[in-house]
Amino acid sequence: MDSFLGKLGVTTLTLASPVVFLCISLTLLLLWPLESAFAQSVFSPTQNPVAGSRVFGLKGCTRCHAVNGVGGQVGPDLGRIPGPRSFYALAAAMWNHFPRMAAKMSELGIFHPYLNPRETGDLIAFLHTLNYFDPPGNLEIGQRLFAKKKCIVCHQLGGTGGVMGPNLDFLKQYGSPIFVAAAMWNHGPAMAEAMRVRGITRPTFKGSELIDLIAYLKSASPHPADEPLHLLPGQAEEGRRLFEVKRCRVCHSVGGKGGTVGPDLAERGLRRSLTEFAAAMWNKTPAMIQAMEARGISVPQLRPEEMADIVAYLYSVGYFAEPGDSRQGEKVVAGKGCLNCHSVAGKGGKAAPDLARVQDLGSPAAVISALWNHALFMEKLAKARGIAWPQFRPQEMADLVAYLQALGDRR
């Protein structure tokens, strides 16, 4: 599989919707060894979102949770979680809701699943990337948009339309949002000039319009989709390099580092699905081209795999969005009542292990894994002692992890 994909020069398989993503990835990964399955990772060698989908299925998460409508209905749909999806936000959510999850698992006769550090990291990375994917678009709405947005004036599809622009029948084969984003960016200046000459107002896309339009383009094209497409996960490290080489950083910052002409692309408010990203690229193209021309910057061309890598980089920056502070973590341990049961270097409670002696906490995923695996014991102990289950904000979880890791470093 890897050699086949390498020959084609693509980054990953086609995943046309969350349903396809979940079903294909779970099926293939159940058949392949974890080490060999989709070895490419978005965030680091130990956090692989696609491998995390296998964990999600094998550990029974689908019995209670759905992903964009696919799966159980007991717990919330994890593909529709509002707010940030950083590592620590998701870890805090898993902890905060544990008593309710434990009660429901007991009621349904579900055994509390054990998660090793690798499985924990992969699972959280999978949940983090769920908002990459969009639900299937509406074909009828897409067909109306093809005419309303004046695409039909210049482009032909299935034998109907203009011939000034390229024929769009090929999108059946290559119509992933990443491919569309790259094509719209690369041809943006030429399309803008052609529309100006013909007096066509340049269209913009909002909401699900581009999703619906892509759905129509793919359905109306006569060519079969018999090739892998470009879609995330891409390579975050390569995306970081491309962000510099393509001079994106001249105008945009990422996490506060870079230009200030355009928005910071790692801000949580800018978290977009693939198609939303493609729409934003199109909508802002005139302003971006104007800004580049003012600075003497040539408009860079982007291959689909390069676009995938850049988006993977932008998402990876937000993965560990809340850097932990071990000094604040010490205060969290005291303030959340952890010392009622745990001790630190012999000082504190005796009912649970001394936190300074806990082994194998060498990564954030290892800490979250340890918390999850011992949560059932801790929840029963808290009930027996009449202690309220502590709630953590993402920053508090980040600080707690930093403190527990610092304790391990002192040994």
Radius of gyration: 24 Å
Task: Return residue spans where pLDDT drops below 50 for at least 5 consecutive residues.
Answer: 1-43, 225-232
Tally of separate helices: 18
Ends distance: 44 Å
Q: Give the domain tally.
A: 2
Rough outline? elongated
Question: What can you see in these coordinates?
Answer:
- The protein is mainly α and 411 residues long.
- It folds into 2 domains: 131 residues, no CATH class; 179 residues, no CATH class.
- Helix content is 51%, strand content 4%.
- The protein contains 18 helices and 8 strands.
- The strands form 4 sheets. A two-stranded antiparallel sheet has the order 1-2.
- A hairpin with a 2-residue loop joins strand 5 and strand 6.
- Helix 3 crosses helix 6 and helix 16 crosses helix 18.
- The longest helix is centred in the last third of the chain and has 21 residues.
- The chain starts with a helix and ends with a helix.
What key attributes describe this structure?
411 residues, mainly alpha, 2 domains, two-stranded antiparallel ribbon, 18 helices, 51% helix, 4% strand, disordered N terminus
How would you sum up this structure in a few lines?
It contains 18 helices and 8 strands. With 411 residues, it is mostly helical. The strands form 4 sheets. A two-stranded antiparallel sheet has the order 1-2.
